[in-house]
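Entry type: protein chain
Record version: 2
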Amino acid sequence: MNKSYLSFQDFAMKSASASYAFLPLGFRLKVTMAALIGSPLGMTQREGPLGHLFLDYFQYPALAATWDYDGAVDIRAGAHSDYGSITLLFQRPSQPGLEILTPTSTWSPVPVFPRGTEGDSSPPILVNVGDLLSYWTNGLMRSTVHRVICAKDKLSEDRYSIAYFCHPANDTKLVPIPSKMIQRTQVKSSEVDRDPGTADGITAEEHLRERLAATYGWNDNEE
C-alpha cells in the first residue's frame, strides 16, 4: 500500500479511537467502549475479523454546463444512515452539499466550516452517529439520516471527500450499554426508524446483512 495512504489511515484510526474514548465519559461510565460492548474496537481490516474499518474515497463528478439542473432530482447520494457505529468524514474547503434530515422531516445543510471554525485552515473532522450507536444507547443517540446534493453554485466542480466507517466484530451484540443515563431515557418507537435495541439483541453482522438486503436487495444465499 502507498505510505501516504497508510499514514492517513493510521491518523483516522487514532481519531476514531479518541471519539470512542470520550463516549463512556459522556455516559458517566468508568470503562472503555470496547469493554462495554464486548468487542475490540479500533482494529483495521488487515488485522482480521476482530473489527472492520473502511476508508472510502468519494468523487462526485461536476455537471455539464448544458445540464438541465433540477435540485429535487439531481442528488449525488440519496438519503441514508450509516450502518456502523461512527463515521469520520473528511471534507475539502468550499465544497458544500451534505445535508441532514431534521426531526421535522426537513433537510438542513451541514456547513463545511461550523461556527467558530471559519478561520481554520482546513475543515474540522465531522463525526457522524451510525446505526449501532442507536442500538447501544437505546435510541438516545440517533443514527443520522443524511444525503449529498449538488450545491447550485458548485455544479461545475467535482466534489471530493473521504469517509472512515467503523464497524465492530461481526458477533458483537447490539444491546444497550449499562448506563443509568440510558436506562432513564424512554424513546418512543415512533421517534426511531428501527428497533433501538432489545434484550436479546441481534449481532452487528445480522444488522449489516439486513441493511444490505433492504437497500440493495443483497442476499448472500443466492448463488
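Comment: The CA atoms of residues 22 and 33 lie 9 Å apart.
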